[in-house]
């Protein structure tokens, strides 16, 4: 894992939260995107070399919808940039981690993604991200 790629924050209302984070960070959202396969709308912010991804549920039964129902708004995941997502997935499986995806899938912001189950990471959902080549 090379670096933290972004921090994902679950929000109830993307427009309200975008306004809040624009004021907080002093910068505009640079990209909004829907990922229908995950049932989520996203908004990205960049501050320095760091990125924040806001995630709002498209439907209540989506993973973000269920997260918001159980835990409310807040940090949802930490994403790490990797050079080769398939090799990193293989390495993590060998280390005994449980992955939520058998294969990488297309996520937001032109990334291949895979999630590591939080049961094996002290309750923190970890996302692996690789730029689509």
Strands across the major sheet, in which order?
A: 2-3-4-1-5-8-7-6
Helix content: 10-25%
Largest sheet: 8 strands, mixed
| Euclidean distance between termini CA atoms | 18 Å
Report the average pLDDT across residues. Answer: 95
Q: What fraction strand?
A: 35-45%
**Strand elements, count:** 8
Instruction: Return the structural class.
Output: alpha+beta
Low-confidence stretches: none
Choose one word for the global shape: globular
User: What's the helix count?
Assistant: 3
- Order of H and E elements: EHEEEHEHEEE
**Rg computed from alpha carbons, rounded to a whole number of angstroms:** 14 Å
Considering the chains and any ligands shown, give keywords for the structure.
about 130 residues; alpha+beta; eight-stranded mixed beta sheet; 8 strands
Task: Explain what you see.
By secondary structure, this protein is of the alpha+beta class. 23% of the residues lie in helices and 38% in strands. Strands 2-3-4-1-5-8-7-6 form an eight-stranded mixed β-sheet. The radius of gyration is 14 Å and the shape is globular. The two termini are 18 Å apart.
Write the layout of secondary structure elements.
Blueprint: E1 3-10, H1 14-25, E2 31-35, E3 40-47, E4 50-57, H2 63-71, E5 74-81, H3 85-94, E6 105-106, E7 111-116, E8 126-131
Parallel strand pairs: 1-4, 5-8
Antiparallel strand pairs: 1-5, 2-3, 3-4, 6-7, 7-8
């Amino acid at each position: 894992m090379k670096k933290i790629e972004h921090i994902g924050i679950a929000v109830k209302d993307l427009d309200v939260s975008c306004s809040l984070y624009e004021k907080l960070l002093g910068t505009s959202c640079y990209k909004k995107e829907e990922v229908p396969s995950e049932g989520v709308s996203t908004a990205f912010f960049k501050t320095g070399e760091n990125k924040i991804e806001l995630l709002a549920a498209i439907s209540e039964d989506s993973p973000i919808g269920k997260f918001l129902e159980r835990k409310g708004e807040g940090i949802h995941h930490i994403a790490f940039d990797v050079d080769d997502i398939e090799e990193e997935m293989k390495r993590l499986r060998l280390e005994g981690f449980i992955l939520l995806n058998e294969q990488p899938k297309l996520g937001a912001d032109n990334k291949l993604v895979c999630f590591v189950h939080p049961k094996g990471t002290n309750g923190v959902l970890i996302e692996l991200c690789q730029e689509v080549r």
